[in-house]
Amino acid sequence: MEASTTVKKMLAGNHIFVPTYQRAYSWDTEIDKSKPFKQVNTFLSDLEDYQRSNTKSKYYFGHFLFEKKTESKFGVIDGQQRLTTIVIFLSALFQRIKSLRDLTEEEIITKEDMIVRGSSTYRFITVDYDEQLFIDCIINQEKTNNYLLETESAKRIVKASEFFTSYFSD
Questions:
Q1: 125 and 135 in contact (C-beta within 8 Å)?
Q2: What span, in angstroms and rounded, lies between the C-alpha atoms of 151 and 113?
Q3: What angle do CA 105, 97, 140 make, to 5 degrees?
Q4: Half-sphere exposure of 56 (CA within 13 A, CB side)
Q5: CA distance 1 to 141
Q6: How far apart are CA 78 and CA 33, in angstroms?
Q7: How does residue 56 score in pLDDT terms, banded at 50, 70 and 90?
Q8: Mapping DSSP to helix (H, G, I), strand (E, B) and coil, where does residue 129 land?
Q9: Which pLDDT tens digit goes with each residue over 25-35?
Q10: Phi and psi (nearest 5°) for 128?
């Protein structure tokens, strides 16, 4: 993987996973707009500020550190909260576009490079105990089953997804 790259290049052709020794998804989302922002809200607010700035430089998501397992398989050592949020955001974005119209060929390729190719080549997977929820609810965009919300991290994943989905609906 290139040392300096785009999110698309980082994900495309790779399988990135959260190793079992890493903590689960811990970023919170605040739904009540009168309360202080949480991490997911700040992530979106930063993207909005960048978009409004009309700057020509690329947006910097921060650094990511990976442990190479094979030529295309990497464990996240640092940056998994941001990377998980990016994938949740992108999944909600593609879902919204698809609800309005068919994806263009370029958008289909981009989604395959960043989320899932076919029905089982996942570009990013979270910790083992949240993996099925992540696949079902984020990648495959299936309705959330309450039985899958057994962990706090699962609840945070779903809340972030619902937040982005609501944002794109507005």
A1: yes
A2: 29
A3: 85
A4: 0
A5: 28
A6: 30
A7: confident
A8: helix
A9: 999 999 998 99
A10: -50, -50
